[in-house]
Amino acid sequence: MEKKSVESVALSDDDDNIIAEDVHQLNSTTTKGKKTLKSKVWNFFDILPLGVDQKLKSQCKKCGAQYMASSKYGTGNMRRHIKVCKRNDTRDIGQMMISHDTNSLSLGSIQYDSNKFRELVMVCIVMHDLPFQFVEWVGIRAIHQYLCPDVDTLTRNTGKADVLKAYQREKLKIKAMFEEVSGRVSLTSDLWSSCISDGYMCLTAHFIDKEWRLQKRILNFCFMSPLHTGVALSGKIFDLLCGWKIEGKLFSLTLDNASSNDVSVEALGSQLQLKGLLPCNGEFFHLRCCCHILNLVVQDGLKHIDRAIEKIRESVKYVKGSHSQVRKQKVLDCVKLVSMGVKKGLRQDILTRWNSTYLMLDSALLYRRAFEHLALSDSNYKSCPSAEEWDKVEKVWRFLKFLYDATLVFSGTKYPTANLFFPSISQCYLTLKMALEGTYEYLKFMASMMWVKFQKCWADFSVILAIACILDPRYKMTFVELCYKKAHGEDSLEILLVRNKLYSLFDEYKFKSSHPTTTSISSRANEATSHLESMEVESNLDLFKVMKPQLYIYSYFY
User: 3-state DSSP call for residue 201?
Assistant: First the structure.
């Protein structure tokens, strides 16, 4: 389209002789047969059939204007019309575009760029999770041809090749980003099974870039062969890390609470530690997924659901699962009758997700008066809890709220969460202890079931996450000491362990800053440990006046 419009303006006066010759040839060969017309003017005009007057005429393809095409009339009129045609591409108001340079309206044709077109198609495939054969769909090709007749015809192989090229470009960008990272990289990994039971592994990196911005990048989502043993998992992760060349920048690996993951992280940590690639001899390398453990803890407590919660579930099903408009209208009438201004809807729970049970109780308590009125007006509704059962449900809801809030904190993706673990889990710990020491029997039973799993997984709070809390200026050492005293008493030895690990980690970073050419990290850790033993606690506190090493430590945790 652009080429045609430019060529139309570029027609010169010398074309008259060629055009006139073409018309003369056309006049002399109308009865003998058609000849190919080579002049550019015929890209814009069609020769009309002879009419009643037996005169040869031409018609503009854009606006339909007709001109005499006989040689005695000449063709200058057609050439001049091309320049002033109202339907020409360069005069179409739809082609008026905003200039990127001056931010003003400029008159011109849209230029088709095949490389830009292929890039946009590639981005569309990735963004909307489309199959590669998307570019071969008849409807899509028809749209492209309508917008630009000169558009390139793409195939599924072309789309696949473009996506792979884009992946390689982005991979190089992330590798360059890793090279500029001065701190450490923390990893999370999980396994996923498709609907046909194929296993896949997802490896995600969390780090702080050179601009001190929190970054999260999915490094690999790859096929994992069957037999997900610990040795196979550790070998797979190590190969992926070597491909990204970040095996020397790792700090921690977070996995769920599966036994095979414990074996894999132990094997991987040993392999990295043989090369001296982990700080503090790999002591902080393995972290357990807090959300997964918290889910296991609560699931144990909710295995034996009270009859009151069963009635709430049946009541919600009675309202939401009803296909009768009459029943739904009764519920709406009850809501209006008790003057409830609540716009929040009822939530139905999923048995495998405990947080959905909490949300169901949260929404049902808002509609308590509506349910009580519905029980009086609808004889078919027989699952309304009694007043005593409603009070029991409210106590369970308050008990679960602390655990639900902790899950939301752990699940955050737009902010660092390592520094928020210790305050949240300490609150859960104290809530369970209070429930165990309380007088409400059902809550005591739930808390006892949760306490067994909690003690198994978190008998000793994660030391490195406690250090992260200390480095948060909102909490510092005082808050951690207070939590340990409440949990283990005034003479708790755990706080001394946290303090020693913090100083050891600080000394290792300090040694790294002053000896950047030393090759063995493990030797530096041993030297820092021996140095710590010769120092007093009070002198160690003065080290925190140095700001730069503290920032380096803080970059470890995200």
Answer: strand
